[in-house]
């Protein structure tokens, strides 16, 4: 563990958040999620597994009209949320099942295709042919959102009771026996993750299954994900895997594919749970360039100090102008 | 760049209609109708925007994408009555302690006594509101189980722990007429801590992801201390004899000037993100605060030192002005958190500038 003296711990890249939080040199390596939304099928198994394992209460059964998303967003009672976005746009070179040309597939050797030896790509033009009613392509984006377990976690920084803490795995967890429900973390989170459970009073969010990690098990959502869209592991390894996957998608012509929250240089020092997205972050309800609010805390205190001095000085000046009260009497 | 819109200090330019989730990144953005077309928003999302005569429409509709128009960040769970009420009472107490010390030093006995008592009452009320707003009020003492400089709320809890007993001692010893030396020390101590109590609440809200609060973190402390001086001056005008009102009138002028100057600078600097300070509920509260503080200050200047009733009425207007300012700032923050455009548009613009700088 390098010394925390003389370093800016409020923002910027930070190699070892758990160590900086006081965990000894033998603490486990930082873990997290890499959510590859390009293989998400929107099954919501992660939502269900999370609720079941963590005993998260039911929070309303509503029909929203937002595609297949009736969960709506992360909150005190939703620690995994699958977003659904419908767009009239092809996904890279993907081909729809619509086959107006009646292409003959009888000569294709499916075993050779599966072995990856000969794979004649279907002609690109097929993807562009509109259906009779004038529509072209539909792509359906699905993404499972979760707490980002930021390197610089605003919720943790602003918590006045120390209820939020950095675990030995580098994750951020609420201690429910400490939280007094002040709610400060709620507007502090740049992603809108943590929230208050009204009937309980305290705040709740994803723990990255802290109880399972201690037993050497992967979090419930990652365990339940049938397509490995949610990948759990050491953060360094996940970043390598994500970079490889991004290259693969770019090669396949999915130019919009981008990593989100992966860079340690971003406004929160990198996310412990990062994503591969197929469109801009805001399309999924994610902030495009989040910054940990405490980055500006020194400036805030300076301005508050100046304001307090202005008040004291201004009122002192007022009294200096009205000093002659006793004489006047 | 595919899209020709952006934000500068004058607001958003080149805006385009449409905020539904159907986007598809750069490609579909370029497919949209050209800028300058009448803005259209999804059903139920359009809010009234009456252009007032002689006032430039601050910001046109912003083109941006969101997830079904849902907010990106979570709005504060705080109740306006508790937290904005606390900001008001904390300011009244803090600036009141300064006025009390000044009054004592210049021999204005009645004014000193009144403001010591009002500071004690206000800070007690503050504490009650703060505890009431907790999800688990019985655990309020957990605020003091750590000392955490990164948490303005924790720092504020320690500050109140120092200030409240000091202000309390000043009031109680004054009322009892006992231990004058300790009473004077407590009065001085409260006067030194008071401005911090009045100013730190601006850091408290500035240190959030709420756009209108965070981005206003430079000016908000001055808005808050100015508003605190307005409140304390109002209280002094209500509770002191007219002969002692000279400094209270001066404090009213000073506070009103500081608060309105800081607000104006903040709104000008924030541009688009500062919009909620002028619109909707928060805008109405702000205009009410402006009217009340102007009326209160004018009344104090004209009659504050002559007519007891007029002085008290002016004081009441100033107190109400301060309360309106705090509730207005609170509501502006909530409004800016609830509309995703205040989160997305500035961040997107920041990325665009960054990309332009790198290229």
UniProtKB/TrEMBL annotation, chain A:
<dbReference type="GO" id="GO:0015944">
    <property type="term" value="P:formate oxidation"/>
</dbReference>
<keyword id="KW-0472">Membrane</keyword>
<feature type="binding site">
    <location>
        <position position="147"/>
    </location>
    <ligand>
        <name>[4Fe-4S] cluster 3</name>
    </ligand>
</feature>
<feature type="binding site">
    <location>
        <position position="225"/>
    </location>
    <ligand>
        <name>[4Fe-4S] cluster 1</name>
    </ligand>
</feature>
<feature type="binding site">
    <location>
        <position position="179"/>
    </location>
    <ligand>
        <name>[4Fe-4S] cluster 4</name>
    </ligand>
</feature>
<feature type="binding site">
    <location>
        <position position="159"/>
    </location>
    <ligand>
        <name>[4Fe-4S] cluster 4</name>
    </ligand>
</feature>
<dbReference type="InterPro" id="IPR051555">
    <property type="entry name" value="FDH_Electron_Transfer_Unit"/>
</dbReference>
<feature type="binding site">
    <location>
        <position position="206"/>
    </location>
    <ligand>
        <name>[4Fe-4S] cluster 2</name>
    </ligand>
</feature>
<keyword id="KW-0004">4Fe-4S</keyword>
<dbReference type="Pfam" id="PF12800">
    <property type="entry name" value="Fer4_4"/>
</dbReference>
<dbReference type="GO" id="GO:0051539">
    <property type="term" value="F:4 iron, 4 sulfur cluster binding"/>
</dbReference>
<feature type="binding site">
    <location>
        <position position="46"/>
    </location>
    <ligand>
        <name>[4Fe-4S] cluster 1</name>
    </ligand>
</feature>
<dbReference type="InterPro" id="IPR017900">
    <property type="entry name" value="4Fe4S_Fe_S_CS"/>
</dbReference>
<feature type="binding site">
    <location>
        <position position="189"/>
    </location>
    <ligand>
        <name>[4Fe-4S] cluster 3</name>
    </ligand>
</feature>
<feature type="binding site">
    <location>
        <position position="43"/>
    </location>
    <ligand>
        <name>[4Fe-4S] cluster 1</name>
    </ligand>
</feature>
<dbReference type="InterPro" id="IPR014603">
    <property type="entry name" value="Formate_DH_Fe-S_su"/>
</dbReference>
<feature type="domain" description="4Fe-4S ferredoxin-type">
    <location>
        <begin position="138"/>
        <end position="169"/>
    </location>
</feature>
<keyword id="KW-0812">Transmembrane</keyword>
<feature type="binding site">
    <location>
        <position position="185"/>
    </location>
    <ligand>
        <name>[4Fe-4S] cluster 4</name>
    </ligand>
</feature>
<feature type="binding site">
    <location>
        <position position="182"/>
    </location>
    <ligand>
        <name>[4Fe-4S] cluster 4</name>
    </ligand>
</feature>
<dbReference type="GO" id="GO:0045333">
    <property type="term" value="P:cellular respiration"/>
</dbReference>
<protein>
    <submittedName>
        <fullName>Formate dehydrogenase iron-sulfur subunit</fullName>
    </submittedName>
</protein>
TrEMBL record, chain B:
<feature type="compositionally biased region" description="Low complexity">
    <location>
        <begin position="32"/>
        <end position="41"/>
    </location>
</feature>
<feature type="transmembrane region" description="Helical">
    <location>
        <begin position="185"/>
        <end position="205"/>
    </location>
</feature>
<comment type="similarity">
    <text>Belongs to the NrfD family.</text>
</comment>
<protein>
    <submittedName>
        <fullName>Polysulphide reductase, NrfD</fullName>
    </submittedName>
</protein>
<dbReference type="GO" id="GO:0005886">
    <property type="term" value="C:plasma membrane"/>
</dbReference>
<feature type="compositionally biased region" description="Basic residues">
    <location>
        <begin position="44"/>
        <end position="53"/>
    </location>
</feature>
<feature type="transmembrane region" description="Helical">
    <location>
        <begin position="155"/>
        <end position="173"/>
    </location>
</feature>
<feature type="transmembrane region" description="Helical">
    <location>
        <begin position="220"/>
        <end position="239"/>
    </location>
</feature>
<keyword id="KW-1133">Transmembrane helix</keyword>
<feature type="transmembrane region" description="Helical">
    <location>
        <begin position="83"/>
        <end position="102"/>
    </location>
</feature>
<feature type="region of interest" description="Disordered">
    <location>
        <begin position="1"/>
        <end position="56"/>
    </location>
</feature>
<feature type="compositionally biased region" description="Basic and acidic residues">
    <location>
        <begin position="7"/>
        <end position="19"/>
    </location>
</feature>
<dbReference type="InterPro" id="IPR052049">
    <property type="entry name" value="Electron_transfer_protein"/>
</dbReference>
<keyword id="KW-1003">Cell membrane</keyword>
<feature type="transmembrane region" description="Helical">
    <location>
        <begin position="114"/>
        <end position="135"/>
    </location>
</feature>
<dbReference type="Pfam" id="PF03916">
    <property type="entry name" value="NrfD"/>
</dbReference>
<keyword id="KW-0812">Transmembrane</keyword>
<dbReference type="InterPro" id="IPR005614">
    <property type="entry name" value="NrfD-like"/>
</dbReference>
<keyword id="KW-0472">Membrane</keyword>
